[in-house]
Design a protein that fits this description.
This protein is an alpha/beta fold and 301 residues long. It has a domain of 180 residues: Rossmann fold (3-Layer(aba) Sandwich), CATH 3.40.50. It is built from 13 helices and 14 strands. The chain is globular and about 60 Å long. It binds guanosine-5'-diphosphate (GDP). Guanosine-5'-diphosphate (GDP) binds next to α1.
């Protein structure tokens, strides 16, 4: 069994490669939930839905949220009649979000996700990192902002001074899944706002220290591939490079995978982490994703 810690872009991309070479039923994906919130009356669990849609083969790969080929009739109508519609949610996507919102009246988030992943025919387990509601707060020079307010409404522009999120209780199965895994994989996800919150869950770090953990750097060169990781890393005093990420993960990591372009960091990182692998981590197409998955799981296959 393999557990994979995921945010909503880099790791889902890699998941597409992983499920080509590993039986999806042997995979549990533990997903960040700190960006979850209500928008236009529906509960939006962005990273969870991206992981679900990726594993169901219906993700919109242009945006890494929503469903490929979705229509936006409801979104356009709501905007016309004056709804703020902060997020552009497609019709099918909204249907799934409405169902999740309704399920949450009766069930915990982890149970709602379990019902939905089965309905979508997904064989892998998907676990929210927590059933507890708690949001990340971004302290900017323009005030405190919730994640989507910063990223969508303000287009990630304000200077970030710091970030805060509470420690939450892991959802049922999270600790067990980590402890029972032959390998825990930390995908190329934002170390501050996606992976950090999962690891900060009660008991997660302790569980990670007991098992074999591999991570892939989301930073190639001195830039994240996409998204606001650089701003968030800087705000917390980290150098924006694979070395900076290695320093964040060093206490529990057994193997770190960095890109060819960062080969010059290998020696420095080897002083922090036992095993360092240098390979192509830039995933432009399915072939790249499968190749990276093979490099990660070579000896496990
Ligand atoms: P979010 O929830 O949308 O922020 O997504 P994630 O946390 O899962 O992933 C964001 C991170 O993925 C960013 O820091 C990117 O640099 C990284 N990323 C995206 N695509 C790639 C890729 O092809 N290769 C690598 N190495 N990192 C990637």
């Amino acid at each position: 069994m393999i557990s994979i810690l995921s945010g909503g872009t880099g790791t889902p991309k890699l998941l597409q490669g992983i499920i080509e070479i590993i039986n999806p039923a042997d995979i549990t994906v533990i997903v960040n939930t700190l960006e979850n919130n209500y928008f236009s009356g529906v509960y939006v669990a962005a990273d969870l839905d991206t992981v679900m849609y990726t594993l169901a083969g219906i993700i919109n790969q242009d945006t890494w949220y929503g469903i490929q080929g979705d229509t936006f009739i409801t979104h356009d109508t709501l905007k016309e009649i004056g709804c703020p519609e902060t997020l552009r949610i497609g019709d099918q996507d909204r249907g799934i979000k409405i169902q999740k919102t309704l399920l949450l009246d009766k069930y915990r988030l982890s149970e709602a996700v379990e019902i939905q992943r089965r309905k979508l025919g997904i064989k892998s387990k998907i676990l929210p990192m927590s059933d507890q509601d708690s949001q990340i707060i971004i302290h900017t020079d323009e005030g405190y902002m919730e994640f989507h307010q910063f990223l969508v409404e303000n287009q990630g522009q304000p200077n970030v001074l710091d970030l805060h999120y509470p420690e939450v209780k892991p959802a049922p199965g999270v600790i067990e899944s980590i402890e029972q895994s032959e390998m825990v994989l930390i995908g190329p996800s934002n170390p501050i706002t996606s992976v950090g919150p999962i690891i900060s869950g009660e008991g997660v770090l302790k569980a990670l220290k007991k098992v074999y953990v591999v991570a892939i750097s989301p930073i190639i060169g001195d830039n994240p591939f996409s998204g606001p990781a650089a701003k968030f890393m800087q705000a917390q005093g980290h150098e924006v490079s694979c070395l900076g990420v290695a320093k964040i993960y060093k206490d529990f990591l057994d193997k770190f995978i960095i890109d060819y372009k960062d080969a010059h960091y290998q020696k420095k990182i080897e002083k922090l982490i036992t095993e360092v692998m240098v390979t192509q981590t830039n995933m432009k197409n399915l072939e790249d994703k499968v190749m990276l998955a093979r490099s990660i799981f070579g000896e496990f296959l």
